[in-house]
Amino acid sequence: MLRIKKLHILIVKQFALLFVGTFFICLFVLMMQFVWQYIDALIGKGLTLDVLAQFFWYMALMMVPQALPLAILLSSLIAFGNLGETSELTAIKAAGISLMQALRPLIIIVIAIAFGSFYFQNNVGPYSNKKMGQLLISMKQKSPELEIPEGIFYDGIPQCNIYVQKKDLKTGVLYGVMIYKMTDSYEDAAIILADSGMLQSTAEKKHLLLSLWSGEWFENMRSSDFGGSAYIPYRRETFWSKKILLDFDGDFSLADANVFGQNAKAKSLNQLREDIDSLNFTYDSIGRAYYNDAMRYAFDVGIMSKADSLRAINTIKTKSFTFDSLYAKLSPDKQRQSVNGALSKVNQQSTDLDFKSMLTSDGDRYLRLHKIEAINKFVLTFSCIIFFFIGAPLGAIIRKGGLGIPIIVSVIVFIIFYLLDSTGFRMSRGGMWAIWFGKGLATAVLAPTAVFITYKANNDSAVFNLDAYIDLGMRILGMRRKRSIMGKEVIINDPDYANDRLELARLSREVTDYAHEHNLKSPPNIIKVFFKYQPDHEIERISEELEGVIDDLSNTKDRMVLSLLNHYPIVAEKAHTRPFERRWLNTLMAILVPLGAFFYIRMWSFRLRLLKDLRVIKQTNEKMTSRIEEIIGMTQQSESSEQKAN
To answer: d(Cα 241, Cα 614) in Å, to the nearest integer?
Structure first.
């Protein structure tokens, strides 16, 4: 037990140190990505250091739940990759400790981190999101000349609405300027049109200087100056250049935090549940009210009750009246008046329904955002556990530490999670997918993957063995490795050259007979290939015996023999007989004609390659036999010389 405790302490120390380092790295990367999105709100605003410190502090608090899963994934990958690369993991398994036993202390730690992540999201996260939104709005309002958008009215300046067609970001010049300048009421509004203009803050940050060029000024004169006359004159001014001073406090001040109280991200789980119930009740009431209005308009139309409408319809049916006949009895003026009245009512109802649809769709979207945020707290919590059971087993399988392969694997896994989660979020927010399906998509994909990888790692599977996949690909493409036999430093038994020479001579005869008997140049019989398969045990026996001779001769010290051994091809024993081992697969390929034709041509090419291999084997046997005879002759000559010397 003491040994296992020391092992757990070793693993926990490695994981903890890596987790702390990778957490701050991941947090920094996510913060930089967030800063890049809001770089316009920071540059050129003259923000003080304390404001910037608050911005980065609350941004870091917001990014903590996203950084935790990625840090767990990366740290577990590196930790177990290091253990595998230094063979410590092999020693642990050799001591009778399975991978799951080694993971037990880390599982407890990761579950604790997951609960801490949930607590953070439920308590600290809403507060940081609220403060961050407050800071962003305040930053945007500090220098409005940088925030004026194109194509819409901007009301960030008190008593002014500014519309700009185009804005030059380099020079700050505004083109196609339209300004509604308010005073006491809308009747006293001044309308200013200009071809171009520029908005700048004054040095004391208390006013905005609006410079306009080539425009006109329209302004109503105050009605009080004319004694309440019904006719109010207005003033029109055409100008080439004009400067207007607008009151605006450019000093930084925080916006009202209550504005962000309705943001779903700024609420805890209990607040989300309460607000979801309230929203459901509110919008259900609105829906019932809209339904009652529609029913009342359909049957009442402001004049008749529902019963009267039904009675009138029944009367028309019993007396065989039609609306077309009633319409035909009207005069042309009455017909025109009826059509115009009906069209007006339809347009009115269509506009009313569009307005109601806009309200209800906004309500549905607002409600979906609350439900998505409630589920998202559990998704991010559960992702910590999922990423651990992906990272640790992958590190044990790959057995590569450092920051190379682990970072690549971590980025790939996180990108897959991010794409699935973002897609599910957007589809759920738009109402195309159910919320539980959209937010659970990433978890549903990665959780089985984590279980599969953990199972394979615990059973020492070579599922991620690169060499195995290379061999499989080479077999599919009909490629093969070249034989590589090197001289051995220590040789226990010397080759039996005499017996090997006899075996090679016999194999040469059998190879010749086999090639003559099977006629490998001709195309294979389709019936035998796909329906009546017969195994080719003869070539299997020849290949097995040849490998035995090669294995024996590999114990030689003669370099020429070693070189000739590498000339022997690695014979494919079954590829020239049928496409697959299973008979039903061969039958299926025969039915699927395009695939069957491909495998038929592929098998024919293997027959031709086998014929070429047999010729190479025969030629190499002849060279090898000659060399063995030379070695035997030199050995006999050496032995006779020793006998004469004795």
So the answer is: 96
Q: Which residue from 564, 537, 541 is spatially nearest to 624, judged by alpha carbons?
A: 564
* Strand positions, DSSP E, 248-344: none
- How many angstroms separate the CA atoms of 125 and 508, rounded? 79
Residue 534: Cβ-neighbour burial (10 angstroms; 0-12, 13-18, 19+): exposed
Indicate if the pLDDT at residue 219 is higher than 60.
Answer: yes
Q: Report the DSSP beta bridge partners of residue 216.
A: 193, 238
Q: Are 330 and 323 in contact (CB under 8 A)?
A: no
CA separation for the pair 392, 404 (Å, rounded): 16
The CB-based long-range contact list for 276-280 (8 Å cut-off, 24+ gap) reads 276/367, 276/370, 276/371, 276/374, 279/363, 279/366, 279/367, 279/370, 280/367
Helix ranges (DSSP H) in 492-592: 497-518, 526-530, 537-553, 559-565, 583-591
Cβ proximity of 34 and 59 under 8 Å: yes
Position 1 scores a pLDDT of 42
HEC string for 587-644: HHHHHCHHHHHHHHHHHHHHHHHHHHHHHHHHHHHHHHHHHHHHHHHHHHHHHHHHHH
Find the mean pLDDT for residues 395-411: 80
What is the Cα–Cα distance from 274 to 589, expressed in whole angstroms? 61
Question: Three-state SS for 196?
Answer: strand
d(CA 464, CA 268) in angstroms, rounded, equals 42
Of 193, 191, 240, 235, the closest CA to residue 214 belongs to: 240
What DSSP string runs through 131-178?
A: HHHHHHHHHHHH-GGGTPPSSSEE--STTEEEEEEEE-TTT--EEEEE
Question: For residues 242 and 173, what is the distance between their CA atoms, to the nearest angstrom?
Answer: 15
Q: What's the rounded Cα separation, in Å, for the pair 400 and 396?
A: 8
How many degrees, rounded to 5, is the angle at CA 31 between CA 422 and CA 33? 55
pTM surpassing 0.90?
A: no
Task: Compute CA 31 distance to the chain's CA centroid, rounded to the nearest angstrom.
Answer: 19
Both tokens assigned to 47: 């923000």
Q: What backbone torsions phi and psi does residue 161 show, to the nearest 5 degrees?
A: -125, 120
Lowest mean pLDDT among 70-74, 131-135, 150-154, 584-588: 584-588
Q: Using an 8 Å Cβ cutoff, are 89 and 401 in contact?
A: no
Q: Find all residues with CB under 8 Å of 316, minimum gap 6, and list them.
A: 322
Tokens at residue 599, please?
């495998």
CB 427 within 8 A of CB 367: no
Cβ atoms 62, 129 nearer than 8 A: yes
Q: Residue 324, exposed/middle/buried by CB under 10 A (0-12, 13-18, 19+)?
A: exposed
